[in-house]
Design brief:
By secondary structure, the protein is mostly helical. The chain has one domain: MFS general substrate transporter like domains (Growth Hormone, Chain: A). The chain is 82% helix and 0% strand.
Length: 216
């Protein structure tokens, strides 16, 4: 499958095609870092806040990985039809999922919380399947001429750096807020995931800009 399969419209020449590569890389950077940070903080909350064993916490979050694997297998069909717009809606969906996490942890009684978290994790995986791989292909359409390998490597490097920094910063914020009150798990969870919402909003802004350019 070629990069062109992800968009019906032909790639239009632009005065600075590298600009769109940088834009797509920025989208990937904020997306990847925020998603890993969400999963990291959710793991800490399940283990420390709710007292689950690590294996049990992992099982609660397994639905996210399974859903991402399945949607990644056919998600390209929707992206091929709708282009960047499909990715835009997927990011919006992920933002709603994270807001759902915050509301659930702070308002839903514990006996009903786990099923809600499982459902939200699955929805998060679905959104990830429509963002991660499609964004890479759509971004690499604009790799600098003669440097496709370097561009792909730089895209991967930006994601790994974002993951490292985001995991450390967001998890640190969670633990820092929690340190001021050992009973404030929900408050700490909300503060940490609010940062992830901001990161996803920045990713969404990049997606919207590129989607408008493609429609033009």
């Amino acid at each position: 499958m070629s990069a062109g399969d992800y968009d019906r419209a032909p790639v239009v020449a632009h005065r600075d095609p590298n600009r769109w590569f940088r834009l797509g890389t920025t989208v990937a950077l904020f997306w990847f870092g925020s998603i890993l940070a969400v999963n990291g903080v959710l793991s800490l909350y399940l283990i420390e806040g709710l007292g689950f064993a690590p294996l049990s916490a992992a099982l609660i979050m397994t639905g996210s990985s399974l859903a991402m694997a399945m949607t990644s297998a056919f998600g390209w069909r929707l992206v091929a039809r709708f282009g960047r717009s499909a990715v835009v809606f997927a990011i919006v969906g992920e933002i709603l999922v994270i807001l759902g996490y915050i509301v659930a942890v702070n308002l839903i009684p514990r006996e009903y919380l786990i099923p809600v978290l499982v459902v939200l994790a699955v929805l998060s995986g679905v959104a990830s399947g429509f963002v991660d791989a499609p964004n890479r292909v759509l971004t690499l359409e604009y790799a600098p001429a003669g440097a496709n390998g370097v561009a792909a490597g730089f895209l991967q490097l930006s994601q790994r750096l974002s993951a490292t920094i985001s995991l450390a910063a967001v998890s640190g914020l969670y633990l820092g807020v929690l340190g001021s009150s050992t009973e404030g798990y929900g408050r700490a969870f909300g503060f940490a995931l609010a940062v992830c919402v901001v990161m996803l909003t920045l990713s969404l802004a990049g997606e919207v800009a590129d989607s408008r350019r493609r429609r033009a």
